[in-house]
## 1
Amino acid sequence: MARILVVEDEQDLRQVLEYNLRDAGHEVVAFGEGRKAMAWAADETPDLVLLDLMLPDVSGLEVCRALKAGKNTRDVPVVMVTARGEEIDRVVGFELGADDYVVKPFSVRELLLRLRAVLRRGAVPAEDVAPTSKPIRFGRLTIDVGAHRVWVDGQELSLTPLEFKLVCTLYERRNRVQSRGALLDDVWGASQENMTRTIDTHVKRLREKLGEVGAYIETVRGVGYRFVGSPPGTPGGGGTTEEESR
């Protein structure tokens, strides 16, 4: 069971969402205005936010931006629900940190499955990395899969569940190119072609958090990404001429 915050100004739809989410076993708190939802989320920290893009007082994009900037809400997954399905809206949403995007009208069954997938991403470590009692040390990077923690040069990073799963997946498959489609399927649990842009957005954000260690993740032009086989500065470490770091 998860505590889900619903932000939807259409009363009929809000009630439908509340009913079906509670019927699925979730705790639901619902608001019709963005500012009230943001204030509640900052104090209560939900497990997931179901967010309408078009709200009467403030844009859903602004709500998403505030949630991702908030100390208590930056790691909370956000699923946007809107009647606007243009690619630019999806791209902006993903760049702000949204985890999924559902266009109205939608099937309640499909929505529940998507929410389950998003919640599962945040709750389960990368499947390809077996939990271990000892942290993984790779150059300047340290990953503790069991504790869900990452350090660079001894300084702990604040990664979202998706970012953690992404770095674990890339590390486990180091020195092997991972296409955007493969990462979308294995990390996001999705396969929509129009979502591949979100891979680039999340890799860019992950690299920024990793700082200089972000160079461990190489871009293979026209294909996808690859985690280096050995840390730069060690024999055989570093990239080759076919890659470029973004």
## 2
Amino acid sequence: MAPEVSEPLAAAASRRQLVRRAGVVSAAVAASRVVGVLREQAFAVFFGAGRELDAFVTAFRIPNLLRDLFAEGALSAAFVSTFTQCRERDGEAAAWRLANRVLNLLAVIVGALCLLGIACAPGLVRLIAPGFAAIPGKLALTTTLTRIMFPFLLLVAVAAVAMGVLNTCGVFGIPAATGAFFNLGSLAAGLACAWWIAPGYIGGVVRALEAGAPPPTDPALAARAILGMAVGTLVGGALQVLVQLPALGRVGFRYAPLFSPRDPAVRQVLRLMAPAAIGAAAVQVNVVVNNNFASYLGDGPVSWLNIAFRFMQLPIGLFGVAVGTVTLPAVARHVALGDGAALRATLREALEMVALCCLPAAAGLALFGAPLIAVVYQHGRFGPADTHAAAMALAGYALGLVGYAGVKVLAPAFYALDDARTPMLVSLASMGTNYALNWSFVRALGLGHVGLALSTSAVALANCVVLYALLRRRLGPLGRGLPAVVLRIGGATAVMALVAGAIDRALAAALLPPTPLRALVRLAVGGPVGATTFWVAGRALAVPLPRWPWREDPPRPAARPALRA
């Protein structure tokens, strides 16, 4: 006689584990985003939404795009899937050999790419931001910043390999916290370098804030100060690697100078990475295209879009990245073991969690974008007009939040199934669509930077829907009632938006003129009202609202599994 665990108990156990692990990653990502807000505040206070910040954002976007193409995005998807299968089938020793071979090969390839990028920086900047040539000094400053920050790509590629190893070994908190160390290191080291290179500018802004006077606007000093912030970015990238080294040692990893590009497992990683580099980078590529269009709109739009997308990254990281990170190793394990039922159940739970978290978050960002941005950024050289412009962009981006987060779960599932071609083709189609929508919204309809945000959201949603339809056709239904659950979550979100939006509009009319302090009052009232309304509406609509992970107790012994002869 063998014990057989019933499907409801197995599903509950799977959900508890997914919620617990996603909770760990979400907490680490939340810490990273809090420190990231401080870093963004420093940029807004010291540089405002002008020439220097536009140049920094564009310069950092080039290695950041390549990071998604060759490091965190494509590498994580390809490496975690292959490493998990190697570990399950061939044992620990083979898995460690694979990790070392991939790490060393990646260091050679990405190191050469960094040297090439530094040499070709002028051409890259002209390609990504051609409109900067019309503003004196902006193109040259962006080129210098690009050359300083290009080695960041090598540091983050090494960090991505370490993250993949730890996630496969069940360690999620430390890899997810690397973002906090990056933000902390880049902020502290960047301000220190900026103070050393341009003490008159940094000190002048601080003294102006203390006295309530207008901050200095010397463009030569501001350009020197932003160079210090670029150096700080490299320090933050190095910290992402260093903080993971102790955990790697504890799980058994030991570095070895192994180099074997022809190893079958290494070739599988590379084979998956090539199309995955395109498939995982749709959002970043579309953001770069947006940057190209925004560069023609004068000083400010590039920074407004960047600030809006920073706020978008909070729920994407807390929910999309967190759920996708903990789902990928489990999905790869189910594929390696040939357990189709468990695979479908895991994907369904992941998508349900994404919808439950991201739909109300999107409504909250659209409703409270202006007070959120005012509280965080409206200081120093960042004024009320910048707040309004960035809030409009955030509302446009928020429409696609579920799409952004859903792709983080769906695309890696194809890689685990040894199919990187499908996400690549969907991604290629989305890039072309994004360009066409950008041209229509900006050039034809004159929607400016808000049109760029709207087009990116439309593409993200379409990408998610297509990937879901293709995965469902391949695996079959991912579980009964998933569309109905999503509709109920959407209904609860609509009720929340109506109630919280009406109250916030009344408060905004009463709290004029808008200031950061009055914006904080709007958030203090609107946030709890919105959360409470969503919870009440969710209970009324039978939305599956999970308890906190630490309250998800295992089944009691009294609920004995059925026995079968």
## 3
Amino acid sequence: MLEKSIRGTTALAGLAVVMTLPIAAAAQAPQTLESIRVTATPLNGLTADDQPFSVQTFDTGDLAQGNALSVADFLNEAGTSFTLNDIQNNPLQPDLQYRGFTASPLLGTPQGIVVYQNGVRLNDNFGQAVNWDLLPDTFLNGMTVAGGANPLMGLNSLGGAIALETKTGFNAPGGSASVSYGSFDRLQGSATLGGNDGTFGYFLGVDHFREDGWRDFSDSEATNLYGAASWRGDASTLDLYVNAGDTDLKGNGAIPLYLLETDRDAVFTHPDRTENRFGMVTLAGTHDFDNGLSLNSRLFVRSSRTRSFNGDGAEAEACDAPYQAYLCEDDDGGDDDDDDILGPGDDDDLDIAADEDPAFLFDQSGNRVSSDYDGVNNRSLRKEKIWGGALELGYQAATGGIDHDLVLGADYQRGRTSFQSSVEFATLDETRGTTGSGLYDAEGFTVMRSVTESFGLYAGDTLKLTDALTASLGARYSHVRVDNEDLSGDRPDLTALAKYDRLNFGGGLTYDLSDSLEVYAGAHQSSRVPSPVELACSHEDQPCTLPNSFVADPPLKDVVSRGVEAGLRGRAGDAVRWSADIFRIVNNDDIIFQTSGGVTANVGFFANVGDTRRQGFELSARGRWQMLRWRLNYAYLDATFRDSFFVSSPNHPQAEEGGIPVTPGDHIPGLPKHTLGAGLQADVTQALMLGTSMTLRSGQYFRGDEGNLLSKTGGYAIFDAQARYRISPNVALRLKVENVFDTKYETFGTFGEPGEVLGEEAGDDPRFYGPGQPRGVWVGVDFTW
């Protein structure tokens, strides 16, 4: 399967080369995250200088010290205001949250963070999801996080943007190889090789991950390939980047309180499997002209396939007597004739009274379904092809004694997604795994196609008003078209066209109080449009099962985010850098997923619920003292609903009429109020390094408890440790211990129906938890040349 992805990627590469031959003649000088200051767009990366918003930057040294599994894992440990929710309990499938906004691989999670790689947007089209399993940090040369609702970062940047820069033969020459093994039968390995002759460069890399997982039935595997071919001229560069990924992940989700207290390794039902196949090609060309004018361009093509298989407990129950041999949607009677009861393949073998109408379930042949089936297999297949590009002109000039750094750009993206899903009746075995039957719910098939087009124009100017005072202004116009089409003929409500137009803008000021201290303030507006999956699952009377089936398509409003922030950043010589920031971001017409039931609360719909607000402050510092390197960051987050509404949450223990009331000031679930991170590394000798880190998170409300009627999950503090011993200049041994004290903790909470699967022994407590990983120990060896 990986071979197919590579073949597809190679074909895309050829197309990209043909499309950009005119640009190749004008390609520009190498640029890195650390050396470039860009005023308007993530195409080239950012530094903190003169930016009126929070900026966090990480280089290859930071990434190497972290030994992280992915970008999300690294940011959770080293970044400020970042947290992870292990909803799937797979280390490569977390929800990454920043300032109360989310970038998640899971459909059904409203997304508010945009992620770029070499200037190309990585959020998919169908649900704006981000697949962290396809983003190992092995291939990264640097990373930048820009905070706030900045319109120049593009759609979906409600809370911020993450810009990734990959390695080339110019910024990362040489070779490396590493391998590690340890707890949970986890094996990791990577190898890279790069070089250049001053004009042409190359870089190749492979990264592999495999583990059995610390929970039952949770084995996973991920392989990613990366390559870059580069050319450098006197004033030009041209880079061709190729990515390919093949992953097979088991993420078995939250477990009820009963299992949490008796067997934390257990899973509720299984399997929950996601297979990703991915290929992407990016061609980037830049040129600096002699008159202060510069050109930046990107073209990309991307292809992906996601196949999911989720074994769950059945929602249906045995019909009331005398029809208990069959499954029904519910056990209520009705008034219709038996002609409406029988499917086309049924015999009238029961004496059904005319005043009864059991809601029988029928299979694909029209036969009633046996009540022996107590589980279901939710299957889905999603294929997506996206292509697009961006063109940006930069101009540096001085007029009237004021230096201007002007940017004018345009971008375009078109994505086509085909989606199909089915629901197979199944039987749960003694391990709560599902065994298929070959019988499918006649009303559980979905076949749809979605085409999304987005076009944007943006402009920005950074004005150096004085030697100390800098002003930044920017605006972006976006047009988005989402065209969903039902291909089955059975779900006409899916066919609908939605269009969104929005002009967003912002600006700010920075002032140098001294050579080592800067103050800044800014106000910005950004937006995101409802994704195709949200538009296809937005009717409260026709809820869908995520991530598998969609049934209705009423319109949703786009979410408009307005934010203000201010802060200080400074340094003490070359040894210490620090920052302090306050922010407030208000979302108008925010979208959330409301559950309408389900054994694991995965049945529901998306809806605009009014305004929400995220506000707080951040403190961070890092530095070096003699043989010690240290970092410290703290963030306070107050995330609340600002309007009253009634949220659907039937599994909530205090639900009335299937939901609970939400009032202004109630806190948004799933977000800790306090986060604290600290790290300390000591170069004990030239050969030996010892380090430790701590991650602290306060408790959070359960998803489904938007009214804050119950207590939160417990807070926790996790300590990690690591050591590295350099045998020679080119060989080093390393040791990493996660959760040193084997702390038992939970990162997430929701509600479900444990008794539907576990029976009476589970009790009637509907709380489900995402348990955190126990202690893990890994040893490895690194080679460089």
## 4
Amino acid sequence: MGQDCTKMVDKCGIRNADLPDNPLFMYISLRKVNAMKEKSIQGKDENDNSVKLSRRKRILFKSIMLFVIPLLIVFLLEMFLRIFNYGEAYRLFVDFPGKEIQKHKVINPLIGKKYFQKLEHTRPCHDMFLKEKPENGFRIFVMGSSTVLGFPYDENLMFTRILQQRLQDCYPEKQVEVINTAFTAINSFTLLDFVDDVLEEEPDAILIYAGQNEFYGALGLGSVERSFQSRPLTLLHLDLLSFRFYQLLQNIIHGTAERIAGDNNRVDVYGTLMKVIAKNRDITYKGEIYNKTVRRYEKNMDRIMEKAGRRDVPVFISELVSNAKDIKPFCAAKTPGYPSAEEQYEEAIQNEKEGDFEKAKSNYYLAKDLDCIRFRASEEINEVIRTLAEKHKAVLVPMQTKFFEQASPHHLIGNNLMTEHVHPNIDGYFMMADAFFYVLAESKLPGEKLDIVYYRNSAYYQKNWGFTELDSMLGVHRVNSLKYYWPYQPYDAPFVDYREIYKPVSMIDSLAMSIIKSTDFKTNEAHLVLARVYQKEKNFYKAFREYQAAIECNPYQVKDYLEAADCLIKTDDLPLALHYIQKSFELQESFYGYVRQGEILIIKGDYEDAVESFSNASKLDEKHENTALILEKLYEANFYKGDVKAAEEALNKLKKINPDFIPRIPEQRMDYVYHVPVQVRDLINEGIRSFNAGHDDAALEMLLKSMEIKETSLSNRITGDILMRKNDKNTLVYFLRAYPDYKKDINFLSDLGTLYLKYGVTEKAREVLNEMKRLDPGNEKIEQLKEKIQASK
């Protein structure tokens, strides 16, 4: 036993020398050793149990890792692809690419690649907006496709540009931004994909004109750019396209498929985008594809409006307009249960001949709906739009029923407002702007009320808008070219290139055809060519109109604004010249712009602002090449301003540069308002002659006629004087329109104050009195107006 005990003790690491030679102690020690051994065995069992538990955890861990590791690999691959700039970010809005404009965003010019992966992608317009929305900002985003983009014209005739100018004019206290997100051949899937990005930019409203491209537009069931039959899969596909790994996977699959298929997969299709994008060409009315497409449109638009509603962003959704009267059905195939589209169209023509215009309208629309080549939205789409507007408390824009139909003979929309099957002509685009403008004004979203002082009708804007004969000709040629191909011609008709067979008959005609023939020659460049021709001919008004159109097409060229301003100065339209100079500063300050602005401000009598303008010009004259010119201008402005010290300081500096300089200050005259634009000069001069001769009615007729063409402060002032003598209630409106250019004229201010009192606006009369005191404290008319104000209490 002693030996066993000794062995056990040795196992426990106790040395024999440490144990006393005592049998009792040996026994006790053995009991302790056995206890330690038992505890050791129990510990081992417990360890075995923990090993068994970790195995279960290991199984769970392995299961999780089977899921996590692929995600980690995808994440690392995504990061790797992003680091090396593979693929596209596909953000809707990006920073302006030029260094000169740092405060703005633009629509991503490459965003179309996300939706067009088999055909060449189309591009959005050049609209920009501030990164930081100003406090007084009123920001609208417009969604749609080629009609919203202004086809067959260029960006200068997009209704969105016209709308922005009208809103800005009528709500001058706001900084209005209307951002057009449209591009050609997209449908509601793209709009739904856009809406989250749009909502992030703090819109005050979203305007929608969309639904014509649901069948053949990108991702439509009849399009070659279709990825999936399933709507959920299509939406998932769009979401995944934001990831570079998915783009890589897609490119690998497409590349492999093309290599396998080789030339067998290539189909040579010539013609317009209409022809090449349509895959499932014949889609019967109320058939499976038709019904599925309408439902997809409804769900997509419903989702868009739901998202906007959650952000409390108002939606203005428009009815769609088609040329039902003057475009016969493209397809003669018969829909089961219905007459053929051609038969229905012929019946509509007969109804029209018989004078039954309501029946004719109904049959024209039904013929359009039965047309199985679906480039025109059916009336069912319009019903969906009306239903969704009511459901989401959105504002319905009655584009078809209250605008285009009402403006068409017998309410039959045709070539009177349309260029072809769905795109408006120039009159039609101005009407679209009109429709959205009125519903916005009625909503009171831009402001509580529309001030009649700032209001001008659509016809006025159309006469003064930036488009010329070149744009009209461009539209004609684009439509003619369109009609040389399917669906206007049989699908298998021999290929004929309109661009090659047409022979231009004038310089303008030739420039329009050059735009169509070359993707490198832009519309704005053609306008600039014409502008320079007219400048050489000394026809500065026509030159300005071409610069104006070029700017509306491409609003980022500072030089174009300054050239336009120069032409306007030469045509005596100083207020508009000042406007174009100030618009150029929004892009980039310039020495030349500040000098020109200062010269106009001197004529206007705004000497303090003129001094500031010349000072700004001096700061930009880094090489001091124009010091003498700036000092001469500063001397003149300070002299008129009455700042003798500053004038002498400028003169002394000037004489150091040019000792022989002799200052020639012309007699001070407030002649700004007598610079009358050339296009209305004869009418206004005739009106003034009649006014001076006491022939008020004849004068009023000439002046009102001139203002239909171009408003001026002079015509407004004289019209106001005539109406004041007639005791007409509209007198105050014309005085207020003249005010910006007469606000330093004491006689005018005295009359304005009297008018305010007449209409009970005493507070405004007091403001005018205070302004008169500031301008000319000793003028006798101040006391006269003061007495009138006191008498009115």
